[in-house]
Specification:
Oligomer: single chain
Number of helices: 9
Radius of gyration: 20 Å
Shape: globular
Number of domains: 1
Structural class: alpha+beta
Order of helices and strands: EHEEHEEHHEEHEEHEHEEEEEHH
Bound molecules: fructose -6-phosphate, magnesium ion
């Protein structure tokens, strides 16, 4: 049986205005080029969207993950987007394009990637999550809650097909290693790591062996690109994307979405250097304004059949997320009152912009020994 791959490839190739949102012309160019890719059968289906200043290409196909022709298609969209952004004078044109030449994959070249290959079930609900003004570790809490927290996901307790839990693939971003941890058995170890969200990130979630779903096919995947590691210097936040499948032995759609009702604190926001609440919004509200934020998350829902994407439904546009948005605004207001003080401002080592070394150099000699 042919397996389906769903891929989200994303890049900030120019903001409008500043880092607020994506210019409609870039969305139009992306749709046009992906339509051509569909005609030439590189992909089966697609949807173009944006979250904040990030251009999001959601594609379905049968070429598997890391497929050269699919990545090239997206790369060419980002190149064309960069060209248009330059012509229109958009802000930070080509910001996430860290390389000039395509080498076979966009991984390690700037854009973010989340991909999943799986055997389609009779009905296959898939959610594409897209965040702006934050980092990959922002997905740790909601992915943990959806797949491992019985207070979030009722199915872990009362659905016999989910009762045995899931396997989390966790990456150590600093050491370039990964570990698989089983829940619920290793839940405390898992939390010990992923609570440190700037270092340990959930990359994928798998079903356990012996269940209804193949244990080697992911049920969730998160982009983990760290631009500063690629470029060796600050070049923008690593605004992440993720995919998750739902229902029949997996978290229900509503269990996948439930964690975002918290508006949890994430790092990013202004100059990638502040903690703030993650606000769940519909696409129409996915423009970052107040203090370049607050950080946003959008969720688009699809039903996948024979690699075709029915949808999307703009899931967080629902009024049921009004309270989360209102809470996010309250938290944003509270955090902002702290100005340059931690924990609104990030820890010295985690700030994307810093004057600290310069300030210390200038004050050198003025520090006196304490008795
Ligand atoms: C955060 C972000 C923005 C910019 C800020 C300053 O991820 O992209 O908050 O960091 O607008 O931008 P520059 O330094 O380009 O003026
Ligand atoms: Mg930007
Ligand atoms: Mg962005």
């Amino acid at each position: 049986m042919v397996k389906t791959t769903v891929s989200i490839l994303k890049a900030d190739v120019g903001g409008f205005p500043g880092h607020a949102t994506v210019h409609p012309e870039l969305l139009r160019i992306a749709s046009e080029q992906l339509k051509e890719g569909q005609k030439s059968k590189k992909i089966v289906d697609f949807h173009v969207s944006h979250c904040g200043d990030d251009l999001e290409l959601i594609m379905s196909h049968t070429a598997g993950t890391d497929a050269k022709e699919v990545h090239k298609l997206a790369w060419d969209v980002f190149l064309a987007g960069t060209e248009k952004a330059t012509e229109l004078g958009l802000y930070g044109a080509g910001q996430d394009m860290l390389s000039d030449a395509f080498t076979g994959t966009v991984r390690g070249m700037g854009p973010g990637v989340a991909e999943m290959t799986f055997t389609e079930r009779k009905a296959e609900p898939v959610v594409a999550f897209m965040m702006d003004k934050t980092e990959p570790g922002a997905f740790n809490l909601p992915m943990y809650k959806a797949f491992a927290d019985p207070f979030n996901t009722a199915g872990l307790v009362i659905d016999p097909s989910m009762h045995y839990g899931f396997v989390f693939e966790v990456w150590d971003i600093d050491e370039h290693t990964f570990v698989n941890l089983n829940t619920p058995e290793e839940m405390h170890d898992l939390l010990c790591l992923i609570g440190a969200k700037s270092r340990f990130v959930i990359k994928r979630v798998f079903p356990k062996k012996g269940g209804k779903l193949p244990a080697d096919e992911p049920v969730a995947a998160v982009s983990t690109e760290k631009l500063y590691q690629i470029a060796g210097e600050y070049v923008g936040k690593d605004d992440p994307v993720a995919l998750a499948r739902a229902q029949s032995g997996l978290p229900a759609l509503g269990e996948l979405l439930e964690p975002y009702s918290l508006a949890h604190l994430v790092s990013g926001w202004m100059r990638g250097s502040h903690n703030g609440p993650l606000m769940p919004v519909g696409v129409a509200d996915a423009s970052c304004t107040r203090f370049d934020g607050p950080p946003r998350v959008v969720a688009l829902g699809f039903q996948v059949k024979n690699s075709k994407l029915a949808g999307p439904v703009d899931l967080f546009a629902d009024r049921a997320y009004d309270l989360a948005r209102s809470r996010a605004n309250d938290i944003a207001e509270y955090m902002r009152r702290h100005g340059p003080f931690e924990p609104h401002r990030l820890h010295l080592k985690e700030m994307e912009y810093t004057t600290y070394p310069k300030v210390m150099a200038e004050l050198k000699g003025r520090f006196k020994k304490l008795e």
